[in-house]
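Deliverable D2.4 — example input (structure tokens):
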């Protein structure tokens, strides 16, 4: 690696690639980002109005790591033109439990292990404070830090900031191959680039470029539904928190209305592994199924008005952990498994620190996988 100004190529301009590029540039590297589409690219897992950030995790490792994740975002936002409010709406996150050992209960236990603060709520308090909910059969809930990360604002402003710092961002430039030993990246149009380090953050496209390093990843299709609540509940929704799991086996999560957007309904159980790469439309029956999944949880769900649905793909790794693997000059990263946006700034820091030799590969990989030291 050249001592004075190391050079780096980042393949993929999703949240992980752009944050890694920012962290590499901050450390003095000359950075080129190569993206097959645009920034933000609609096929990227990172592309949407918003993504949830939450402390509430059933895994104590990722739960504990959220403190560092917030600190990394704050450092990044301080360098962007919009200030924190353009990038984050702190609405809090509500988690409910319907019985011992369900996801909500395990998430509360993980908060205890990780030493993260939360407010425990009895069923009566939940009913009194959240008029948009139908909290039947709920044994307890808890409210913790979190809210909406404005994903597309973050991606757009981050790319602009990188350009302003002298980084090159090549859009509409699909990468065809990477030579890890030479640090060479071949584009589909025949151009070749080389650098001291290459970071592969290609999301669902990464495995094809480094099958030996990332043999165990797979894609998952998921759907989300944007909808408006009935008018008589609009006031209750205006201050409602985000939610991650409403108790039992529902795997329901979503975001309240912010910035004039409709609310966003998700359900982890609706994911489909190894989808057709072109299957990116949410079908009418999937929209209805989403609303049905919320019956008994949200008041007036039968009167919600569908605005639009989205289908997108993300990349899974074993145990839903993040992976960072190296061969020669190539660093392949997958910090996704459907929960990676919130860690984007922190993942970028970890990747950059490892790629520039500040921390060992093993240490960076351990941190990203949220495994104990
Ligand atoms: C519907 C949905 C909801 C989600 N909700 C949340 C949430 O609420 N909170 C949360 O934290 N996470 C959430 N996630 C997960 C989160 O969005 C992802 O973990 C994160 O965005 C992954 O970022 P990435 O940069 O690794 O991948 P991506 O965003 O997919 O970026 C990869 C980039 O690489 C590019 N690329 C691929 N192949 C090539 C190639 N050959 N050449 C050049 N470029 C290439 C792609 O075009 C893309 O832009 C959600 C994901 C989805 C799909």
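Example output (designed residues):
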């Amino acid at each position: 690696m050249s001592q004075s100004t190391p050079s780096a190529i980042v393949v993929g301009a999703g949240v992980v690639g752009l944050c890694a590029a920012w962290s590499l540039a901050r450390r003095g590297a000359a950075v080129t980002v190569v993206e097959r589409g645009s920034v933000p690219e609609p096929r990227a897992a990172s592309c949407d109005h918003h993504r949830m950030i939450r402390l509430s995790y059933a895994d104590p490792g990722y739960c504990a790591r959220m403190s560092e994740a917030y600190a990394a975002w704050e450092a990044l936002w301080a360098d962007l033109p919009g200030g924190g409010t353009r990038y984050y709406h702190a609405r809090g996150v509500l988690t409910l439990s319907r019985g011992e050992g369900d996801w909500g209960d395990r998430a509360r236990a993980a908060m205890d292990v990780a030493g993260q603060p939360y407010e425990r709520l009895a069923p009566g308090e939940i009913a009194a404070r959240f008029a948009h909910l139908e909290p039947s059969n709920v044994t307890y809930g808890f409210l913790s830090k979190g809210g909406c990360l404005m994903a597309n604002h973050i991606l757009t402003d981050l790319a602009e900031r990188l350009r302003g710092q002298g980084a090159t961002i090549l859009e509409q430039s699909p990468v065809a191959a990477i030579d890890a030993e030479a640090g060479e990246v071949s584009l589909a149009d025949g151009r070749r680039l080389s650098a001291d380090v290459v970071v592969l953050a290609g999301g669902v496209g990464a495995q094809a470029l480094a099958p030996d390093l990332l043999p165990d990843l797979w894609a998952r299709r998921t759907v989300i539904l944007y909808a408006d609540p009935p008018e008589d509940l609009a006031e209750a929704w205006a201050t409602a928190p985000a939610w991650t799991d409403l108790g039992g086996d529902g795997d329901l999560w979503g975001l309240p209305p912010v910035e004039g957007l409709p609310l966003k309904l998700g359900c982890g159980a609706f994911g489909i592994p190894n989808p057709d790469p072109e299957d990116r439309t949410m079908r009418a029956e999937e929209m209805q199924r989403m609303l049905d999944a919320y019956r008994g949880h949200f008041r007036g769900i039968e009167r919600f008005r569908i605005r639009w649905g989205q289908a997108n793909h993300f990349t899974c790794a074993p145990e839903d952990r993040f992976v960072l693997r190296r061969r020669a000059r190539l660093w392949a990263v997958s910090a996704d498994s459907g929960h990676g946006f919130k860690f984007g700034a922190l993942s970028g820091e970890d990747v950059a620190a490892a790629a520039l030799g500040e921390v060992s590969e093993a240490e960076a990989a351990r941190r990203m996988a949220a495994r104990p030291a």
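The pocket of flavin-adenine dinucleotide is lined by residues 11-17, 34-37, 41, 43-46, 51-52, 174-175, 201-203, 205, 209, 222, 224, 312, 314, 335-336, 338-342 (CB under 6 Å).
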